[in-house]
Write a structure and sequence with these properties.
Blueprint (H helix, E strand, L loop, with lengths): L1 E5 L8 H15 L3 E9 L24 E5 L3 H13 L4 E6 L5 H11 L4 E6 L10 H11 L4 E4 L2 H10 L5 E3 L15 H8 L4 E6 L8 H12 L4 E6 L6 H10 L6 E4 L5 H10 L2 E4 L8 H8 L4 E4 L4 H4 L6 E4 L4 H13 L3 H11 L5 H13 L4
Helix pairs in contact: 1-14, 2-3, 3-4, 6-9, 7-12
Length: 376
């Protein structure tokens, strides 16, 4: 089968770019002929809060692509549509994650739909920071050009059906990012380099308000009153860093906190997860999280909150703990329970047994199933 995938990929950075390349690789391994049409510019500079949009990793996650799309140049949108259509695909898969890209993806999908089926693979039906009616209008403008959809959470399933009640949609878990686990990391050496010891709690990923880092910081005094622990914060701050540092100082937990303000190159990801005992993702809102699947790739349990699709990914009491959002006391209680009851080995074994549910092969099965049904 000929499949055209449209989405960001290397040399652009980020979880969606990683996902796009890994999906293309999985489709190719199944014997499909894959064409990836990517972006040469994702965001205009004034809309991007980070230091760079490029992946500076020494070990990029990449596959062959044609970077045709400039999000700010409509001529490139139609050129991408022509390029996809000329490939003669049986299926076009468009990555959907933010309404800013609605005009781009609508243009490509509309161009292709007369000759092939169009699937939207939805990472977030609506953005984490809800843009209100304008976001929903743009989302519907693009997604109405889809013939079928894959979502990763019940919340996104409901959101999609609220906008497109007749949508042909399947919910499937976000696949695991085992690609970061080379198996060559040594725990003691990773900890020595980072200057951490004892019970290590990892918060990983871009720091934005909805990810709830402040709640985790405020939980730490209660944690430290019961156990010795270190909070390891790793990720580029998109939110005001000073407010977090001020809270760490106010609570007098500076000597139990390590903060690394940077986007992590692929080759360094494993060091942080190997050094950690547990990953804490105290999100205030979410649909799903790729960080959960990085953690599972290292067999690391996750302590998270009951928002969006996170309780679907993390089985409470089996692969981690699920707590109420914005509740430092409950979060602290779960962290202490994890360490005091020595749940690491049990939870890691449960993660190992559940990995087949999060495989890229399962995702390819869904794609093939949609394509096999033909046009309606």
């Amino acid at each position: 089968m000929k499949i055209c995938v449209v989405g960001p990929s290397y040399p652009l950075r980020g979880g969606i770019a990683h996902y796009t390349s890994l999906l293309c690789g999985a489709l190719g391994e199944r014997g499909h002929e894959v064409k990836l049409i990517s972006f040469k510019r994702l965001y205009p500079g004034f809309l991007f809060p980070g230091k760079t949009q490029n992946d500076l990793s020494g070990a990029p996650i990449s596959c062959e692509s044609e970077p045709l799309i400039d999000s700010m140049n409509p001529f490139t949108w139609f050129a991408a549509g022509r390029g996809a259509r000329a490939f003669g695909p049986d299926l076009v898969i468009a990555q959907w994650w933010h309404p800013f890209f609605a005009p781009v993806l609508a243009a490509v999908a509309k161009r292709c739909r007369s000759v092939s089926k169009v699937m939207f693979l939805c990472h977030n039906v609506v953005p984490h920071e809800n843009g209100g009616m304008s976001s929903r209008f743009l989302t519907r403008m693009a997604l109405r050009h889809g013939d079928c959809f894959i979502v990763h959470s019940e919340e996104d399933l409901r959101g999609l059906l609220a906008m497109i009640p007749e949508a042909d949609v399947v919910k499937s878990p976000h696949p695991t990012y085992a690609v970061f686990n080379s198996g060559t990391w040594e725990r003691d050496e990773c900890r020595r380099r980072l200057g951490v010891s004892g019970n290590v709690i990892l918060f990983f990923g871009l720091v934005r308000r909805y990810k709830g880092l402040m709640c985790l910081i405020r939980a730490m005094p209660a944690v430290l009153s019961k156990i010795d622990a270190t909070l390891l914060i790793v990720g580029e701050f998109y939110d005001d860093k000073s407010q977090y540092l001020h809270e760490i100082c106010r609570l007098r937990i500076e000597d139990k906190t390590v903060a690394i303000d940077q986007y992590v190159p692929n080759e360094d990801v494993g060091g942080y997860f190997t050094a950690a005992d547990v990953v804490a993702l105290p999100y205030v809102s979410a649909t799903q999280s790729g960080v959960v699947q990085i953690a599972f790739g290292f067999r690391k349990p996750v302590i998270t909150t009951s928002v969006g699709g996170l309780p679907e990914a993390v089985s409470d009491g089996e692969t981690g703990f699920v707590t109420p959002p914005e509740d430092p006391a409950a979060l602290a209680e779960a962290i202490v329970k994890y360490f005091q009851e020595s749940r690491a080995e049990e939870f890691a074994g449960n993660i190992e047994r559940k990995l087949s549910e999060f495989s890229w092969g399962r995702m390819v099965d869904l794609v093939e199933g949609f394509a096999a049904r033909g046009g309606d």
